[in-house]
Amino acid sequence: MDNRSDIWRGIDTIKGRFIDLSDKVWGMPEVCYTEARSAAEHLAELRHQGFRITENVAGIPTALMGEWGEGGPVIAFMGEYDALPGLSQEAGVAEHRPIETGGHGHGCGHNLLGSAALLAATAVKDWLAENKVPGRVRYYGCPAEEGGAAKAFMVRSGAFEDADIAITWHPHSFWEVAVTPSLANTRADFIFTGRTSHAAASPHLGRSALDAVELMNVGVNYMREHMPSDARVHYALLDTGGIAPNVVQAHARVRYSIRARDLPGMNELVGRVNKIAQGAALMTETKVEMKIISAVSNILPNAPLEQALHRVMEELGPPHFDDTDKGFASQIRATLSDKDIASVYYAIGMDPTDRPLADFLVPLDAKRNPLVGSTDVGDVSWVVPTVQVHAPTVAIGTPFHTWQVVAQGKSPHAHKAMVQAAKAMAGLGIKALTEPELIKAAKADLTKRTTKTPYVCPLPDHVAPPLDMSVV
Ligand SMILES: Nc1ccc(C(=O)N[C@@H](CCC(=O)O)C(=O)O)cc1
């Protein structure tokens, strides 16, 4: 019954629809909670495949879930479909060529991510139907990974409560089990209010909110020396108070992303940044309000799932790239710096090679020096045993959030990698359905890691999904 080659052949039979879905979503890039069309495409495919649908998960209009099957364990596949602002780019070219100035683009490959996760869920559904065994497979369509923390809100709403394991993947330079940790991350806006006035005639009557933002940023930049070396703090100016230098700026808003290895470390840092904001308000006689936009937890690893996934990926092997794939990837590679390339090899503890695309499986015990970002997969990993595939959708060294990711997002090599990711995920799903001891071991591992430090949702109770966060 556990014949993974059957399910892999099944994926080859149906993959066309999902490659088309990925390309379609690539062509309608929608950011943070505005993914109406992309979510509708995913919903239409779930319906076509006969899944039972739940819309509006956690009260989020672009979050959805499809389920198929009865009884047995619940295998959850998680997909994403949000894009990034400012990364509009033509596909299939190795030069920076925006389609639309200032337009959005799939700079983190979530068009592929969502579609391959849905492909894996569909393949497991077909396998369940064929083998007539108890078991349920779910596809969670998760919006706003890029800063919106949708999965954290979905976890808070109980959407993952009865899932037995969760499987996902991410586009990457390499073919590997994702064993890298991620940072807990809070996004908070600091909104300063001052008093406007004529900047020349009555400057002494004005109190500048913009001055306060500048002083706050200076203060935080002094704090950097005194924070843990793996913490990260960065900011974006959302409102600088206006365009006229002769009008004292009465309002200003800065958005901070405050990251640390774990939640206690992050909360401490959020407190320190807030103190600096209060200090800036005191100095400038303005008022400040801190508004939490979203927050995510660090990822908890799961050793039994990682080992099982590694075996599946070994059995499956990396995608087979042909000379055309390697040719385009080499052109992209030529647009990267040696440092870009060296840094991804450094992350897996390997010396750089000349390969344009990854054709090997990174050992599970590679001496990694991980590049660390954040993801809302973290929150799921605290409540359900979770594991992730990395599949080589991009030329080795391509940094995330760049035009080069967008340019490769519809390429044959990206399609091959997304299909391979789906095969790895579905292969692990079948393994979990046929080997009950795997789910047991995965759950025991999670329990062990959370007994002393149980999951605490990083979102304050009063914070609702920031559905309008990208239109401030
Ligand atoms: N396998 C990956 C997972 C997440 C990301 C990423 O760039 N995430 C954003 C999202 C941050 C967040 O969720 O707060 C970031 O780190 O800035 C990149 C690769």
From TrEMBL:
A cellular component term, taken from the record's GO annotations: cytoplasm
Signal peptide start and end residues: none
GO molecular function annotations of the record: dipeptidase activity; para-aminobenzoyl-glutamate hydrolase activity
UniProt xrefs under InterPro entries: Amidohydrolase, Aminobenzoyl-glu_utiliz_pB, Bact_exopeptidase_dim_dom, Peptidase_M20, Peptidase_M20/M20A_hydrolases
Taxonomy, superkingdom: Bacteria
Keyword annotations of the record: Hydrolase
Protein name: Amidohydrolase
Organism: Bradyrhizobium arachidis
Source taxonomy: Bacteria, Pseudomonadati, Pseudomonadota, Alphaproteobacteria, Hyphomicrobiales
